[in-house]
Structure formats: C-alpha cells, structure tokens
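User: structure tokens for this one?
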Amino acid sequence: MQRPSWDQYFMDITSLVATRSSCLRRQVGALLVKDRNILATGYNGVPSGITHCEAVGCLRERLKVPSGERHELCRGLHAEQNAIIQAAKHGTNIDGATLYCTTMPCIICTKMIINAGITTVIYGEGYADDLAREMIAESGITIHHFNPDDGEHTA
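Assistant:
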C-alpha cells in the first residue's frame, strides 16, 4: 500500500473538513499545520449560533453578487478565517504555520494570513482574486497550487 505524501494527506483532510460547510454556493475547508501537526481547522459558514443560510437563503444569491466580489455581503465566514479564529480561541500559536486550503484565499483572508505569520499556502482550486495573488507575492509567503495527480504541490 502506498502511503500518501504529507501534502496529499493534509489536502485530503481539507476536503473532509469542507463537508461541514453550511454555505450554499461553495464548500471550502482549511487546515493550519506546523511541523506536520494539525493546529486548527476551519470551514466556511455562518458564525456559531447564527441561523444557517439553508434556512434563510443566500444573501449573495439574492443580490446576484459574483464570486470573488463584495465579500462583506455574506452571512458566513471563510474557512481560512475560521481556522485562524479557532487557533486564537484556543491559544494556539500559528506563526510560521502552513495553510492548506481547498480554494485559493480571497483578499480578506490573504490579509489575515499575512498578519497571522503564516508562511506557506497550499491550495487546491483557483479563485478569481488578482489582488490576493499580488499581495501574497509581495508578502513573501510561499504559495503553491496542489496537483492531485502527483500528490504534491507545484510552484
């Protein structure tokens, strides 16, 4: 039996985490890892104790907001935000961590990633946010697209 690479292992877990998402448009999972240890997970959805969008409807759909725009017009938090919040809530130091995420982070998450001291981002799907790409490149954070065909990330 072939063991998965570390990247494949962590990306597989992000996909499982994404299944907890309550978002009607896109299910995203995120994982913060340091020294091959999982520090925190996050998925996209409404804050704790708030009615899920499946019960009240999707504000972004109702307003016809395109993907990658007007992030503030949403009841939910992004997976990356929730992972960072969970680490903070439980007193977990994520400085120097790697973020594994099913989707390339948006600009709001990118700014949080930069200030949280996350040094590497490995993502699955792309995302339509040129400013996020520009700011990650300028920040010096290492970013890789994960290639599921070979189980590793690519530059």
